[in-house]
Amino acid sequence: GQECPGQKWMDESETIPLSVHGGAPLDLSPWFNNSCGIDFDGHGGRYPEKLLPHAGLRHLGEHHVPFLLPGYRLNQSDDVVADGQHISLPANSEGTTLYLLAARSGDVHSRGTIATSIGFQLADGTIQFQAFDLNGWKAGKNPDNEMGFEFLYENSQGSRAYSSAKMWIAQIPMPQGATGLVLPHDPNFHIFAATMASEPRESVLYGLSVLNDSKYGFDASNNVFRLTALRSSSRPDPEPDQGLQQFTYSLYPHAGDWRAAHTDERALGLNIPLLAVVTTPHAPEQQIPQFSLENIGAKGDLIATALKKSEDGTGFILRFYEADGQDTQARVVFDRPMRVEETDILERPMPDASLTVQGNSVTLPVGHNRIITLRFTSL
What we know:
Blueprint: E1 2-4, E2 9-16, E3 21-26, E4 45-46, E5 56-60, E6 65-69, E7 80-83, E8 86-88, E9 97-104, E10 113-122, E11 127-135, E12 146-151, E13 154-156, E14 159-161, E15 165-173, E16 178-182, E17 185-198, E18 203-212, E19 218-221, E20 224-227, E21 249-255, H1 263-271, E22 291-295, E23 302-309, E24 316-322, E25 328-334, E26 338-343, E27 356-358, E28 361-366, E29 371-378
Antiparallel strand pairs: 1-2, 2-18, 3-17, 4-13, 5-6, 7-17, 8-16, 9-15, 9-17, 10-11, 10-16, 12-15, 13-14, 18-21, 19-20, 22-25, 23-24, 24-29, 25-28, 26-29, 27-28
């Protein structure tokens, strides 16, 4: 699902999972320092050795991530307990995501999920850490961790305990140019396998967007979708949603994903409808230039949100943003030559802006999800 609370919409889509691109499984055997079938959690709890998978390449999860499994034999180490190890990455890999087959040991029964981190060493020697949540080997509440393996029981101090043991797939975005991994000093963080790959974009068949004009809470579970009509919490407002509540909601079925269906524009149309005002004939106080906003990068979606006088009264402000999370390029064409500069959201000039002015038009790059503010004045 996808949601945008600011525009008050949420979307659920039927997707076809695709495989990751360029999967490069890592050989972690030089760093193995623990055996999950002998004593995984330090207190005699262990995975059932008779059920553990055979050695070799296994494709796991809905995106078929390839993991290199070592095979699990008694008296042989088969997983990495994080203790500050530095692990080199292959130089020819172009993956954008690190996939881990991992789990937490220790006391995670009450919460099921505990945050940890992993470092990416860059070519200049700096280390960039990424935090992520990882589920426990017996329980897990983090939906971002996909189950890689589930075993019907686990062994505990010589006896069989009928609570399932699990290995989870966690995915962490990788910075560009990463040359190595730096593990934290976290004795409960276990890694069974790791793979570098590029995350695929899902193929979307169809979806349903739910729009509304005043409510911010949504949730979806299996085949049930809910819109929160009343809040009963005490923070930050001790008396939320008092009295008669009136709101509008709209069901918007569509082909493809929410981007192709322009759900964000539909939501804006519901929340900011066109208003008609009766007035008498009069001359404009100030002639407003006419313009068109074009997406010449053919990616993403550019949405204009404001056209107003500048705060200092010297011209006009045009504000727009990229809504689909893709880098693109914009062109604004005016009805006459204009002086144009990019400003920040407080309308302060940005000297390093990449604007190209040619005749009546200006072109500029627009980063994904970026807000653009332009000030323009007549020459």
